[in-house]
């Protein structure tokens, strides 16, 4: 009896420990999903008292909008930036890299216009199928696609850093965000709104020209193999590949400050790249387009809700968060379960002679590919359920009477941005 007694508190501690872990995640300022909803305690009263002179003693001094960038985003010289991958941070260096193929293309175009331009394969999609009409050109996979993807990794590095450094961070300072960590997070999420807004729209436009329009899943498999790809679909697919590879590099190189759920995000990016690569290789771009739409459209509202919270627009943020949960549930669960159901149940719509591993014919769907397709989508779904659970917990506590955020900050121990400090002294 004496040996069994200690086991009971151990069991209670395990249950308590699980609850504590969930609570820590929910209020963890460094978690990529819940962190943005852990905001600062307001340092200025909502209705600050007025002094007899009529001046507001608690009013924040107006900030000048500074366009200076931190030292990590300054070039150390092109060669050094290339050697250390610093060009991922420095727009000036990535612009120089981008300019080389453009200049070579222009030079060939104007001086050797009678010959095919070899640099077109870097800047534009390649592999057009001969004889396809100009009003509906079709393309095949090509090894040159790898060069195209690599080039647009640099494009996305340039675009990302330019927008975050020269547009979004100054806007955040103008709004009144001073902490360096919040400036970075706001810029990251603002860029995500721009990227996912554009590519969700592009993905829907691409799908509108396919037989799979609005998740008619049987056409993932009918008429397989879909090796002759529409130009819009191929461009969309390869650009998405470039973006996710660039985002993985951003994480690995520490361009974004790592969250505590760093490995969750690394796993998410690796599984995403796995899905992109395999679906492109085995001619399943129709299903890839569908998965992209479900992820991108919901990510717009996730990033939008985060930005509203950083801006301390509490009521708007709450409404946006509720809308996010609705969109997230439909896109990331209902539609993804529909895709998973199709993989498991409609795979056999592929005619038997094409359910083999025969790459010369563009046929790759051996029976074991059913699992190869199903497993990574299911893995993503497990991760989505965990994140959904966290979101519902936040919403429950909001409805129960708490704000979306508590009184802890993701940068409470971090000093003001040096630029912000300098500006406040000048004021």
Automatic annotation (TrEMBL):
Coiled coil: none annotated. It is a multi-pass membrane protein. One of its GO terms (biological process) is ceramide biosynthetic process. Residues 1-22, 406-427 are annotated as: Disordered. InterPro entries: Lag1/Lac1-like (IPR016439), TLC-dom (IPR006634). It is found in: Endoplasmic reticulum membrane. Keywords: Endoplasmic reticulum, Glycoprotein, Membrane, Transferase, Transmembrane, Transmembrane helix. The chain crosses the membrane at residues 93-111, 146-168, 189-215, 316-335, 373-392. The keyword Aminoacyl-tRNA synthetase does not apply. Residues 181-400 form the TLC domain. Its main location: endoplasmic reticulum. GO terms for molecular function: sphingosine N-acyltransferase activity. One of its GO terms (cellular component) is endoplasmic reticulum membrane. PANTHER family: CERAMIDE SYNTHASE LAC1-RELATED (PTHR12560:SF11), LONGEVITY ASSURANCE FACTOR 1 LAG1 (PTHR12560). Belongs to the sphingosine N-acyltransferase family. This is Longevity assurance proteins LAG1/LAC1. The lineage of its organism: Eukaryota, Fungi, Dikarya, Basidiomycota, Agaricomycotina.
